[in-house]
Description:
Shape: rod-shaped
Structural class: mainly beta
Largest sheet: 6 strands, mixed
Amino acid sequence: MKINTLHNLLSTFLISRYLRSLTFLCAILFFGFNGFGQSVTIEDVVATEGGDLLFTVTFNNAVDIAAFDVTTGYLDVTATGGGLPLVSPEDYDNGAQTLNFSGTAGQTLQFTVTTFDDSIAEGTETFTVNLSSTDLGVDDSDTATGTITDNDAVGVTVSTISGNTTEAGGTATFTVVLNSQPTANVTIPLSSNDTSEGTIAVANVIFTAGNWDTPQTITVTGADDAVVDGNVAYTIVTGDVASTDLAYDALTAANVADIAVTNTDNDAVGVTVSTISGNTT
């Protein structure tokens, strides 16, 4: 009976010491791999397309440790990453960069991400930056959002008319051009609200991703009549824009300016009397 009791007490003591030792060992391993609260953090950054995003990474710790490196990685959200030199539809340079930390507590290092200044109205776009530390004891789970602000907008610019048309067939011109590069062809209907005063040779003006920024010249020709009606104002009317580029397709006739024109009259009131055909007898 006494032997059994002694055995039980000794077993309990040994098991208790074993568990305490195991707990201590686990704690040492945990903090050895995860650090005593040490981490690297990164801040969100915003920039206009064409500019550089300057990110700041900070080593957060109370004491110095051995040197380590941090490598950057990227994840597309609405922005599209690519390698230098960037070309559309790429928005930012997603090449990995390595930051060499000395291990000094509170140290900050910076790196830049280049963005591409395109001509497409695509709105604000974002991507995610993640970090990877060579020191397993440094928490590298923090991420940052890179925000690229667009500097383009959809729209159509229409010039004023170059002058009056005339009933003698005199012409005048105006130009049409897009404000940003479309992702598909853009068609803008044109018509005269009074073809008895003036007409245009084309019913539509069409822009592509290749010629969107080249103004197209439209000719308006005056129409003749035999009525003394003075100089008459009429309008070249623009219609709703059509495109599979949804941003441009959303533009209506109200978003595209009409063109005011005046047709100059070449008639005058009067009576013409011929000379006599000959003498009477």
